[in-house]
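Give me the fold.
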Amino acid sequence: MSKSFTGVSPQKFAALTGFLKAEGIVVPDGNSGTISITSPAEIAISFVYDGTDTLTLTIDNKPFFVAESMIWSKIESGLAKAV
């Protein structure tokens, strides 16, 4: 499942990736790649950022016991905090 988020400025994108890295989440440099979360469960989320406004995320891998809605909720919360 994919979701696109608009209104993501370059500053907000940098703040979000910085926050994720500070939490120990593997985020590749650049405007696209795969975010890897290994604890408490293995989750892979690919991302494409257009560099100006739109961030598209796709949940590529998650355990069956982790609800997609929980992942999207965490992402939306992180985007709201990134300024």
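The chain is about 35% helix and 30% strand.
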